[in-house]
Automatic annotation (TrEMBL):
The name this protein goes by in its record: FAD-binding oxidoreductase
SUPFAM superfamilies referenced in this protein's UniProt entry, alphabetically: FAD-binding/transporter-associated domain-like (SSF56176)
Boundaries of every FAD-binding PCMH-type domain copy: 1-178
Organism: Stigmatella ashevillensis
Superkingdom to which the source organism belongs: Bacteria
């Protein structure tokens, strides 16, 4: 049946997709007809989780927790299980996700297929490093258990493999120990881009978690002005702390009820938001104790916040550029995008040099920049193409999970293991992104 499943950016719109829902690991997948693509929670922004004219294998039903060893912290769960579900099980038992993206509403299958990164990349690398084993179902009906020891090439192709090597059924994930659900965080103001590099370098010695928010409207000499957030999981002395308001796990209380008109995000609204965000956070300078939920997942508090960009959807552009070219490249990319339409959410973070097992994994040493902007048609497509060009020129890469506009030539340049990866793609699997990259 046709469906209205979209990506988080809601651009491009996929209007002709069918779905095949999986409920049991023993279920088979269609063997003839349209191309197939696994679909987790649709939290990818562009078209890598879409399959126009094809079938989405939806995994919401594959959400069972199968095993948890509270002594070692290894959890086995079906691939449709969300990070939120996993945290509810493991946090009270003293284990947290080894790596988490900025939303807990993603599935384990999606986290593996995009080899997601988090605020601890400089210390921990990517999610894929903590996936001990998983089972892959191919369209010919074969099933492969994959790990660094069993079918290692399939393991490496599937981590970051964009859902194209087959359907992951379940996975074993190594969680990391914590003492309690709290994080000690600190907010440090940054005057400019140079300050970002300085504070990053200093913070990474002692802080496991780092990320920076940048005021996208501060340009010229003030470019890079913003706030640096750093933190560590709290030590045992905070165990058993009574849960007061600031320590409560925050449920998602709000939702954006309908699409806001595209014009609601203009220069003035972005400037107002940036002004308040900057000042409100400055007031909270100095170390403070926070529950992990608002620290890791501030955007999850508002359900369907993607509707604020209006009916035409929006882009998130995320690139990584090597340290050697980062200063000039970031300056150019930020100034170029600010001239067009300011991004209400501009995030900088350094990636460390811990490599991933995944051949197609996006993170690599350097600085990653993420920008959001509303879709304004051709003008936005031109901007994205320009940012893609600047990234390539700087020797960087664009994140496929966020992409709706990179060129096929640049994609091939960003992922040097692409040719090797191609021979592991399931012949029945494809995606809108993949066809766009291979016209
Ligand atoms: C608010 C927000 C913040 C984010 N922050 C970050 C961040 O900090 N770091 C980061 O790396 N990403 C981040 N992301 C992106 C998000 O983490 C990834 O796109 C993630 O992969 C989405 O998972 P999903 O379950 O929604 O999968 P989908 O978006 O539905 O699918 C993603 C890919 O996984 C494949 N897939 C899904 N399930 C399976 C399966 N069972 N077997 C095989 N393949 C499968 C799909 O085919 C597709 O290629 C963020 C997204 C949002 C909305």
């Amino acid at each position: 049946m046709t469906n209205d499943l979209q990506s988080w950016g809601r651009f491009p719109l996929a209007t002709r997709q069918t779905t095949h829902a999986l409920a049991w690991q023993t279920d088979s997948i269609p063997t003839a007809g349209a191309s197939l693509l696994p679909y987790g929670q649709g939290r990818s922004y562009g078209d890598s989780c879409l399959n126009e004219n094809g079938t989405l294998l939806t995994t919401h039903g594959l959400d069972r927790l199968l095993d948890f060893d509270a002594a070692t912290g290894v959890v086995r769960c079906e691939a449709g299980t969300t990070l939120e579900t996993l945290l509810k099980l493991t946090v009270p038992r003293g284990w947290f996700l080894p790596v988490t993206p900025g939303t807990k509403f993603v599935s384990i299958g999606g986290a593996i297929a995009n080899d997601v990164h988090g605020k601890n990349h400089h210390r921990a690398g990517t999610f894929g490093r903590y996936v001990r084993r998983f089972e892959l179902l191919r369209s010919d009906g074969s099933r492969k258990v994959c790990s660094p020891e069993e079918n290692p090439d399939w393991y490496e192709a599937t981590i970051g493999g964009l859902g194209l090597t087959g359907l992951i059924l379940w996975a074993d994930v190594q969680m990391r120990p914590i003492h309690n659900p709290f994080v000690i965080t600190e907010t440090v103001p940054m005057a400019d881009l140079e300050d970002f590099f300085k504070i990053s370098r200093e913070s990474e010695q002692d802080a496991e978690l780092t990320v920076a928010w940048v005021d996208s409207l501060a340009l010229g000499r003030r470019l890079g002005r913003g706030l640096f957030f750093r933190g560590n999981f709290a030590p045992p002395r905070f165990d058993g702390l009574p849960l007061v308001r600031s320590h409560l796990s925050h449920g998602s209380a709000l939702a954006v009820p309908f699409n806001l008109p595209g014009i609601s995000l203009n220069w003035l609204s972005v400037a107002t938001f940036n002004w308040f965000f900057y000042r409100a956070n400055l007031l909270r300078r100095g170390p403070r104790l926070q529950h992990y939920d608002p620290f890791f997942y501030p955007l999850d508090k508002v359900h369907r916040w993607n509707r604020v960009y209006g009916r035409k959807g929006f882009f998130q552009f995320q690139c990584v550029v090597p340290f050697s070219t980062a200063r000039d490249a970031l300056r150019e990319i930020m100034e170029r995008s600010a001239r067009d339409v300011p991004s209400p959410l501009t995030v900088l973070k350094t990636f460390g040099d811990i490599s991933s097992p995944g051949w197609m994994s996006f993170p690599r040493p350097g600085v990653t920049l993420a920008l959001d902007f509303a879709n304004r048609g051709d003008r936005t497509m031109k901007l994205v193409a320009e940012l893609d060009r600047l990234t390539r020129q700087a020797g960087g890469a664009v994140y496929p999970a966020k992409d709706a506009g990179m060129s096929p030539e640049n994609f091939a340049a960003y992922f040097p293991q692409l040719e090797r990866f191609k021979s592991y793609i399931d012949p029945a699997f494809s995606s809108s992104f993949w066809r766009r990259m291979n016209p």
